[in-house]
Design brief:
alpha+beta; 398 residues; binds zinc ion; single chain; Alpha-Beta Plaits; 2 domains; 4-stranded antiparallel β-sheet; elongated; Aminopeptidase
């Protein structure tokens, strides 16, 4: 009969240790465009203090790294249960914080600071447990996986997909600790950002009838997206597990032109696609790209040889779905004593890459709430952190 994770301290010592670690983690400014190496080295040292080796997987410029560390009986490369978190946080620019965002503040019932909810609170819980675990008594390994640049499109996790694929058969499953209020989440939509740029010739508006107009082409693309959206709404595909049960293209920004008496030289369209798992985001994107570089470009080219349309994909967070009665979902829910049904969330996580691309059974479950993430005075409730420690240590791995 297996029991929870063997930890060499009392619950209250573990909780105090977790808050100390959270203070250190918040103190590293790991805004996505900055290096995460100071934080990674701190984690590496903390784990080494308990005899746990870390592997680092670097980005090309070696300014950032993913960290993978396995505790317990890792014979034959076993990875056991993976705890996954991203180390980066969103910028604080333009937000009005009541104190330094990178200094942890504790109130009676909350921990305040950038990243406390998303998702250094979860990472602090994982680190507190792993640095106190008696791994000789673990019967199943626990692997910590920390990534960089999640907030700008799961960049770090994408670099780990090849590595994670080699874990198949040696891994039980993965818990992604994004803030779900500790509910066990089994699905979310996918998200891609794209930029489409229309270019023509900047000329006197008197010549406008003879020239392509990039703004008009951009507006036509927006119209095309609008009619696709109506099809998604009325014809589907539909997925009633989500509050908004279909895919959607959001035209988020259109920027072009100078003034009324000049034919615009260019116009940029930034858009976001959010897809349900059964509706391939790549297909929606291919249709938009095809319309822009096909009919719309042809129309512009008919008036100017220099007219051009370029398409770029800026980010990709794949959708995530696992069967709610999958053995790993049941394993986690039973250990956590979950009574509510597995649920679905409207935000994206690395679970789509870990589950869909790397083939590792995954759930999303972590302390705090998404409404508290990315905000000024971001916080996580202390009882959520306590609940997270309880749940993680109750996994039957000892
Ligand atoms: Zn996050």
């Amino acid at each position: 009969m297996s029991s929870g994770i063997p930890v060499r301290c009392s619950d209250s010592e573990l909780y105090a240790h977790m808050l100390d670690i959270l203070g250190r983690l918040v103190g590293f400014d790991t805004t996505s465009h900055k290096s995460n190496l100071e934080l990674i080295h701190y984690v590496q040292e903390l784990l080494a203090g308990n005899g746990i080796d870390s592997e680092l997987h670097w980005n090309e410029a070696r300014t950032k790294a993913n960290l993978v560390a396995t505790a317990g009986p890792g014979d034959g490369g076993a990875r056991g249960v993976v705890w996954s978190g991203h180390t980066d946080v969103v910028p604080v620019d333009g937000q009005s914080w009541s104190a330094d965002p990178f200094t942890l503040r504790l109130t009676q019932d909350a921990a305040i600071g950038r990243g406390t909810a998303d998702m250094k609170g979860f990472i602090a819980c994982c680190l507190a447990i792993l640095s106190m675990t008696d791994h000789a008594r673990l019967t199943t390994p626990v692997t910590l996986m920390l990534t960089y640049e999640e907030e700008i499109g799961c960049v770090g996790a994408r670099h780990l997909v090849e590595e994670m694929r080699t874990w198949q058969g040696r891994v039980t499953g993965c818990i992604v600790g994004e803030p779900t209020g500790l509910d066990v989440v089994v699905g979310h939509k996918g998200k891609q950002n794209h930029r489409i740029t229309f270019t023509g010739e900047p000329r006197h508006a008197a010549l406008a009838p003879q020239l392509p107009n990039p703004i008009v082409a951009a507006a036509a693309l927006a119209g095309h997206a609008g009619s696709r959206n109506e099809e998604f709404r009325t014809e589907g595909p539909h997925d009633d597990r989500f509050d908004i049960g279909h895919s959607w293209i959001n035209i988020g920004r259109i920027d072009g032109g100078v003034k009324p008496n000049i034919v615009p030289e260019s116009c940029v369209v930034d858009l976001e696609i959010r897809n349900i798992p059964a509706h391939a985001c790549d297909d929606i994107a291919a249709d938009l790209h095809g319309h822009a570089t096909g009919a719309l470009r042809d129309g512009m080219r008919a008036l100017s040889d220099v007219a051009e349309v370029t398409v770029e994909q800026l980010s990709d967070t794949p959708s995530f779905a696992i069967e709610p009665d999958h053995a790993f979902v049941t394993f986690v829910r039973e250990a956590f004593g979950a009574t509510e049904d597995p649920c679905y969330v409207p935000f994206g996580t690395e679970a789509g890459l870990i589950c869909g691309h790397a083939g590792i059974p995954t759930v999303v479950c972590g302390p705090g709430f998404i409404t508290e993430a990315h905000t000024a005075d971001e916080f996580v409730a202390l009882d959520q952190l306590r609940g997270c420690l309880d749940r993680l240590t109750s996994l039957p791995l000892g």
